[in-house]
Specification:
It is built from 7 helices and 9 strands. By secondary structure, the protein is an alpha+beta fold. The longest helix has 20 residues, at 136-155.
């Protein structure tokens, strides 16, 4: 095909007979980023080779990763990428990640090609996990891991697209909490020696692992250090409000 590359059947010379032989399988050859890529169409039908060559040129024109290696990327390859990403960024939730990956691999299979994991199979996975009585939040964590794996695969040029991944609804409404006016009423009846600690706990969300100190020498202003908290910076509480 002029201007697109070529379609051919590889040939070789038989060492015993000296005869030239030809493969029954069609191949394609095309240029990409200054190098020649040769790829089997895995078919004896020339039309299949033509379609493959046109698809590859479409991917190149769209600026997408292309080539036979893209379609060889497996779930195990994506797992390696996300584990490295977590370790490089020193994320503490790697144990939860590995648990999520275990469920994904048990269902899809670690050698499954990434291109074979589409939205329909992901929906089937969600149904499977619900049948196993997994909570929606747990399933969502697993879906988030899968989505991140595809994002990293795209960045690495190992995956072309990310399938649509729908998350499940979760009920995160907290129960058993009351308003500040109600809290003050309860505080009034507590012993004086524990009132300061209880009020600090209420104002800071109960983050008892935080170190706090008086700021400006006043009892109405507290400085909360980031140590032991999800916050990396110190926070200031003045008159019951975060500054």
């Amino acid at each position: 095909m002029r201007g697109m590359g070529r379609i051919y059947k590889p040939g070789w010379r038989d060492r015993k007979t000296g005869e030239t032989r030809e493969s029954p399988i069609w191949w394609i050859g095309y240029n990409h980023r200054g190098r020649v890529i040769r790829e089997s169409a895995h078919s004896v039908n020339r039309t299949d080779a033509v379609k493959l060559l046109r698809r590859r040129h479409g991917e190149i024109s769209a600026g997408k990763p292309t080539g036979p290696n893209i379609e060889k990327t497996t779930l195990s390859d994506l797992e390696e990428m996300i584990v490295k990403d977590y370790r490089v960024n020193q994320r503490k939730s790697i144990a939860r990640l590995q648990d999520a990956i275990t469920h994904l691999k048990n269902y899809f299979g670690e050698s499954t090609k990434a291109v074979e994991i589409g939205s329909d199979r992901i929906t089937a996975y969600v149904t499977h996990r619900q049948e196993e009585k997994a909570k929606n939040a747990t399933v969502n964590n697993e879906l988030s891991a899968l989505g991140r794996m595809f994002v990293l695969g795209i960045r690495a040029g190992r995956v072309v697209t990310k399938p649509y991944i729908a998350k499940l609804a979760t009920n995160n409404a907290r129960k058993g909490f009351f308003e500040y006016a109600q809290f003050k009423s309860v505080l009034f009846h507590l012993p004086d020696d524990i009132k300061p600690a209880v009020e600090v706990a209420y104002l800071t969300g109960g983050e008892s692992t935080q170190r706090y100190s008086l700021a400006n020498g006043t009892t109405s202003t507290l400085r909360l250090a980031g140590f032991g908290s999800t916050q990396t910076k110190a926070r200031i509480v003045k008159d019951g409000n975060f500054l």
